[in-house]
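re: that chain from earlier
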Amino acid sequence: MCEAIAGLELRHRQRTRCEDHIRDARSTGLRNLPLHGFAQNQIWLEIVQLALDLLAWMPMLALTGKTRRWEPKKLRLRLFSAAAQLITTGRRRYLRLAAHWPWTDVISAAADRLHALPNPG
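^ sequence. v structure.
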């Protein structure tokens, strides 16, 4: 009896996770197909898929704590719309973020975590 309840709970959690992914896809650009031609919309869907892949991997690799549970809308507002400059000096690139932005420390920590990952291949 207890195993059946555990199985039902697992199935319910998996369905909830699937519905969350569908909601994230709709908020990322899958709500409507904005272009007229089939090939153009096919390209649009590929771009949306790339964005969803980035949104799936970024929390696992770069974010920590409560920032891992941010929805795509909150990520766009807080992280992706930050004012910054890409500075190249001495053959190195630096990302200079606005000091007044409230989530500068989150972006800096995420960039540091990504930079610390081993180089694939």
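Residues 2-116 form one domain.
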